[in-house]
Structures are given as C-alpha cells and as structure tokens.
Amino acid sequence: MRDPKLQQSRFGSRTPWLDAAAPDESRPPYRIELGAGAPDEAAVAGCDRAIVELLDARPPWLDIEAGIVDEEQLRGVPVGPTLLLGFGGSALGARAALEFAEVAELRPGPLRVLDAVDPWVVGDTLDWAAACNAKLMVVSKSGNTIEVLRLLDACLSRGLEPLTLISDPIAGPERDAALPPIVARVREASAGQHVELAIPAQVGGRWSVFTAVGQAPLKAANVDPRLLTHAAIHERDRLASGAPAREGLARSLAWRLANPAPYSILWCYSEVLMHWGAWTQQLECESLGRERDDGSRVGELVCTLRGPADQHSVAQLLLDGPARGRVTFVDFDDDPAGSYAGDLAELARLRVIEREASAESMTLPTRTLLARDRSPATLAALMLHGMIETAVTAENWSIDPYGQPAVEKIKRGIRARS
C-alpha cells in the first residue's frame, strides 16, 4: 500500500512535501515495469557493471558538488518576477523544476522562460515583463548564442534590467571588446550591478541542470535550489551503495540497449512530466545523434506524447504502422483508484486505465516508468538517471556524447546570415 503522505497534489489537505523528504528519498525514484522486449539477466548484469564504471569515473557532470553555487553569490540573485532568456539546456531543466515545484505546492514566484523568436510570443512576454518590472536572467554557456543576444537587445529596448548572467567562466578583467557579446552587453546595461554565475567549463549545457543553470531560476522563484542538487547527490550516492539500489536503472538501461530503434516515444500520462520529457529529448538527441569515424550514423529521435490526448492522434500509427520504435509510458505511482484527487477521482482513475490499456495493446517494445511522487527531489533523480542512461548508451555505441558538432554547422550558418 502506498503511503498517502507521499502523494503530492492540489486536492484536499496533504502533508507538505518537505515533511516527507526523508522517507521519500529513501525509496527508488521510480518503479519499472517491462513489457515486450524485456532483456535477459545477463544483459541487466552487464548494464549494472557499466553504471558502476561510470560512477567510479565520475565525469564532470557527476561531480555535482563542484557545480553548487556559493551561497553568497546565490543571495545576489534577485527574488521576484523574472524573465529567463535561454534556449535548450539553458531553459528546459528550469522549466521542469519549476513545474514540479508548483505541483508540489512550494508556490514558486513568477518566472517566465523566453526561448522563442516569434515576435508575437516575444511581444506578449515582454509586455508581461514590463508590467511586473521583471528582472532579466540571461543564460548562455558560450556567451554568444545569437537568439539570446537578439532577445536581450529587445528586452533592453523595453527598459528591462539584466541582473543575473549565467555563462562559462570569464577569467580576468578583460576589456569589454574581448568579451563574448552577451557578457559585454549585460555588463554595460547593468553598469556592473548584476551577479555573474559560472557553469563549470567541462559541463555542457544539456548536462548542466544541477549547476547554476538549475539553481538560479529556483532561487529567483523563492524555492530552495538545494531541492535539486542535494537530491541528485543523494541519488548518485544511493546508486553507488550496491546492486539492489541500481536494479531499476540497470534493468531500464538493458531494455533500452536490447531494443535500439530510430525513434523512442516518451508517452507522458501526466502533464507535469511534459517539461521533463522535453529536457530528456534534448539530452538524448544531442548526445546520441552522431556520425562515427567510419561514416555510419547512430541516434534515436525522442518524441514526447501527451496521454491520453495522443491516443486519439498517434496511437493508430504506433499500433499498426511500421514496427521501428519503442515506447516508454511515464506516469506517477499514484493510487490507481484516484483517492488523492477528491471529487476528480474518476478522472484520475481513468488516466490509469487508459495508460494500462495502451501499454497492453502496444506491439512495440514497451516499458512503464512510474515516478514515486511530484517532488523536485524525484525530478532530480529522474534527470540523473537520464544522464547516466545516455552516457552508458554512448559508451555502448562507441561514441562521444559531449559537444554538438552538427549543431555548430547550423550556428555558423545563422551567424553568416545575421
């Protein structure tokens, strides 16, 4: 029987998430149920060894402590209405964290992420920012992301103040002319009255959610950033404690490697998981889409679906179309009867029924991942597991998951036309 204290929802009276933190984090972050394509035990054991090797090697993104922002610096991040300018890994993790914080009833303050250049969307967002005197948080690892630079110029033209900058470390008091353009623009516009936070140099954008990239937005929204970082450290150390702690991750990873496919479906049966799905999409697509030295190409297109809505738009293709993908059903480990949802219990129950019916009908390889609750700690653990799965998959495929060589070609083309 699930502990009702661990249920997180907007319905009725519930124990606040922080009161349930200790017993919650003592459990694995999710349960795994494997359907078609389940791996054999030898494959699971091999994946467990690969996870141990990765934990022992501790790549820079696993050195979470090194990315924790100094408390004094973090205090300099303004709390209040905030507009975050960033694309990809600079924004997707923050979106997911704030969504989980909202549903966990931590009441994050107003923070909007602007990662579009559509004038209609930008104009509406800038109107909101001007109306509430939002402060700018600018995130660009390189300091020269062209979209962020253009958005920053648009914000400055509206009189908005850039008070937080997150980028690669800037060494020494270089002259503004030598600085990356975004850094130079922020320093000039704020007259130095802003806080600069550094992403560890060896941690790429999509691997940076446990650095300032994830911590500063939570701080601006008046949510404790340690809810992410401390949970990630706890989960990393739990995984290192022995094979039983790694069993779910090893089995999930073995299923994935046993069922390579050109596309991978993340079918999220809770809207709360959609931003996590978008973050996972970037992590996997940019890390695993590679051309090898011999000219062969590897990778998988990650597609995030909404359930039950996409049963009415995509299920027919997955059931009767080409058998070339695999499907992960993702949801929360809620009471199947929907008891936590008050007078909406029948809808909560229907969601579970539809998820299970879809999984049973699927002819593609399937797994079901049921997250333990809606807390930021669970999100942190899910993200850490995603990074580990991605890194081990890259090792299995003999590719380097860091950097983005093909994307750089697009960026060069954009700069040449700008």
Automatic annotation (TrEMBL):
GO terms for cellular component: cytosol. This is Glucose-6-phosphate isomerase. Residues 1-12 have a biased composition (Polar residues). Its EC number is 5.3.1.9. InterPro entries: G6P_Isomerase, SIS_dom_sf. The gene is pgi. Gene3D superfamilies: Glucose-6-phosphate isomerase like protein, domain 1 (3.40.50.10490). PROSITE patterns: P_GLUCOSE_ISOMERASE_3 (PS51463).
